[in-house]
């Protein structure tokens, strides 16, 4: 049986770009005139669907993925992550080179985007690189039941905020985004992990997904990029596809309107 579907062979329509090419930033520009948060997810997966290798997403990355990681960070007002990702990937604050700082200033952004961590428990180590190697104060988005204790432990190294919604024992992602929007941090880049991404998907808060497909087979029982229990059917449309000479595929999908 033949289905009436049009296929397009994707190929280059211009000269190659390197990580410093100004055209590359245009591929990852956020919409103009934002007054509410636009949430972009950036994740990586192997050919067989694993979100990690050797327990870390960084185990799948190549030079091209790391370059685009920087491009997306430089475009964002704030970087949103889950606490487990901060611990496992040994996060530090965002590093922004001089040229990108100047460009951010021209766009009316701070020189360095803060990192906002979603954590129900607030259990983060105040001596971790995340707090000791950063130029800007991190934001901790926690729940009402944990906010006082978290402020006691982390209040000197971070700004701790109550992001509970109807339930005092959990973080409400819509409330967290409202807090960011009130600070005019509209361009949100979520770097995971799988549980946070799944929650954003289930809550219909993810506006786009930038997924790197690594030309690697992992096998085993590695987690997917979204690891929640809920199931939805949110349709997306392709915005662009890029590749590099190592065979990585860089996809960008945005919410279908």
UniProtKB/TrEMBL annotation:
Its taxonomic path starts at: Bacteria, Bacillati, Actinomycetota, Actinomycetes, Mycobacteriales
- Domain Bacterial bifunctional deaminase-reductase C-terminal: from-to ranges: 38-249
Q: What is this protein called?
A: Bacterial bifunctional deaminase-reductase C-terminal domain-containing protein
The reply on keyword NADP is: yes
What superkingdom heads the lineage?
Answer: Bacteria
PANTHER family, per the entry: 2,5-DIAMINO-6-RIBOSYLAMINO-4(3H)-PYRIMIDINONE 5'-PHOSPHATE REDUCTASE, DIHYDROFOLATE REDUCTASE FAMILY PROTEIN (AFU_ORTHOLOGUE AFUA_8G06820)
Question: What organism is this sequence from?
Answer: Mycolicibacterium moriokaense
Q: Which InterPro entries match?
A: DHFR-like_dom_sf, RibDG_C, Riboflavin_Biosynth_HTPR
Provide the GO MF annotations for this entry: 5-amino-6-(5-phosphoribosylamino)uracil reductase activity
Query: What are the UniProt keywords, alphabetically?
Result: NADP, Oxidoreductase
**Biological process terms in GO annotation:** riboflavin biosynthetic process
Q: Which residues cross the membrane?
A: none
SUPFAM superfamilies per UniProt: Dihydrofolate reductase-like
Q: In which pathway does it act?
A: Cofactor biosynthesis; riboflavin biosynthesis
């Amino acid at each position: 049986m033949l289905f009436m579907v049009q296929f397009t062979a994707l190929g280059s329509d211009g000269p190659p770009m390197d990580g410093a090419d100004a055209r590359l930033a245009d591929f990852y520009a956020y919409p103009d005139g934002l007054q509410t948060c636009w949430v972009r997810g950036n994740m990586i997966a192997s050919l067989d669907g694993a979100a990690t290798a050797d327990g870390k997403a960084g185990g799948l990355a190549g030079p091209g993925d790391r370059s685009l990681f920087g491009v997306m960070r430089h475009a964002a007002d704030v970087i949103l992550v889950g606490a487990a990702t901060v611990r496992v990937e040994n996060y530090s604050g965002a590093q922004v080179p001089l040229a990108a700082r100047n460009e951010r200033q021209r766009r009316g952004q701070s020189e360095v985007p803060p990192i906002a961590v979603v954590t129900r428990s607030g259990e983060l180590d105040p001596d971790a690189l995340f707090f000791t190697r950063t130029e800007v104060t991190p934001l901790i988005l926690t729940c009402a039941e944990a906010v006082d204790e978290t402020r006691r432990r982390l209040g000197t190294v971070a700004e701790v905020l109550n992001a509970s919604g109807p339930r005092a024992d959990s973080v409400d992602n819509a409330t967290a985004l409202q807090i960011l929007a009130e600070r005019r941090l509209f361009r949100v880049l979520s770097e995971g992990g799988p549980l946070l991404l799944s929650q954003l998907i289930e809550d219909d808060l993810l506006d786009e997904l930038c997924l790197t497909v690594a030309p690697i087979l992992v096998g085993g029982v590695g987690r997917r990029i979204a690891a929640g229990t809920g199931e939805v059917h949110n349709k997306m449309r392709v915005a662009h596809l890029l590749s590099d000479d190592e065979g990585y595929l860089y996809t960008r999908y945005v919410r279908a309107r």
